[in-house]
Amino acid sequence: MEKIRLTNSYDEDRVQSGDLQPEQVQSVEIEALVDTGATMLILPADVVQRLGLREQGRRKVIYANGEDDTIPWIGGVRLTLLGREMIASALVVPAGATALIGQIPLEELDLIVDPKSRTLKVNPASPDVPLFDAFSAA
Length: 138
Hints:
- By secondary structure, the protein is an alpha+beta fold.
- The protein has a single domain (2-122), classed as Acid Proteases (Cathepsin D, subunit A, domain 1, Beta Barrel).
- The chain is built from three helices and nine strands; from the N terminus they run E-H-E-E-H-E-E-E-E-H-E-E.
- Strand 8 and strand 9 (119-122) form a beta hairpin.
- It is globular, with a radius of gyration of 16 Å.
């Protein structure tokens, strides 16, 4: 489990344009499970509601038990974890469920799961900022 900060990035944009005061930006800290078997950031509906984010569409998912479903999808979530930030989209599960941090946010934040110590760490090859592999499309 890791403590994460989630912020409504659309609110942050409105602060930049002068339409909202900084203290009005909706943000929350929660505990989330690092789940290398999950793909995306997954947030409970009550957390999404506290952030003031609205459904932007629906996505088909397959749960660990093999069942499939179509669930809400949101965008505009600033995720802060271990001092690193990204703007993410997230899948929305029922209120009260455990938030999950999947492979996409782990990759974008350049974080490593140490299976031996069962801890999440900043990639030692890039201790200051996330490092990405980029390939030239020449």
